[in-house]
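Following up on my earlier thread - several people asked me to post the actual chain instead of describing it. Fair enough. Here it is, all 257 residues.
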Amino acid sequence: MSLVDSHCHLNFEPMGDDIPAVLERAKAANVDYMLCVSVNLEDYPEVLAIAQAHKNIFASVGVHPCYQDVKEPTVEELLSLAQDENVVAIGETGLDYFRVEGDMVWQQARFVRHIEVGIEVGKPLIIHTREAAEDTMRILQEHHADRCGAVMHCFAEDWETAKKALDLGFYISFSGIVTFNSAARLKEVAKQVPLDRILVETDAPYLAPVPMRGRPNQPAFVAHTAQYVADLRDISLETLSQQTSDNFFELFGSAVK
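Reply from S.P.:
Thanks for posting it. Predicted structure:
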């Protein structure tokens, strides 16, 4: 059995201080591959260095929609950075109307640039959306993001939004949120998404799943989320693990086992 943590931030504290131990715990939990996700250009070299040092870790490049006081990415710069063989995705990108207030034109423009880069380099997008589902899906449709593919990371929206993403050929990734008692709507979505479109993730060091709530999250804990989703769907953990791993490498086609 082999699992993939499709979204984590290994350079963030406390994981960045002891990556060998983090990877050892992941290995013990049968988590064999990880995608370390970029949130700004300033820290991107850290993300890339981790991927370069470990064959089972991949990288993305992008600037998170919540980051305002950072270097604004240009299409040209993202295109250049995305050429690296360790980079398998563009993002984390998208829209967030929860953490950021005011005029969102800048956020939407940044999002569009990431989509353009994804299409140009043929690498899928990692989509973040919070309280912005309608605009997120509209922009993805209008700018033809189906040409490069995408994953709806840390999905916490309703079935209607999931269906729109699935209709574009996108994947849906479930984090520890699905294990929370308050996530009744999300649990129903996790039951309905086709098995060949599901990914699992930690978003470590955030959102540790039950029974690890209150602790800093880490890739090893994705096994708890996988088990929970498997139970929701009344399938074995082995089946869920195999399918989500296959899905990961199908979506992120430049990732090599």
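The chain has a mean pLDDT of 97. That should answer part of your original question.
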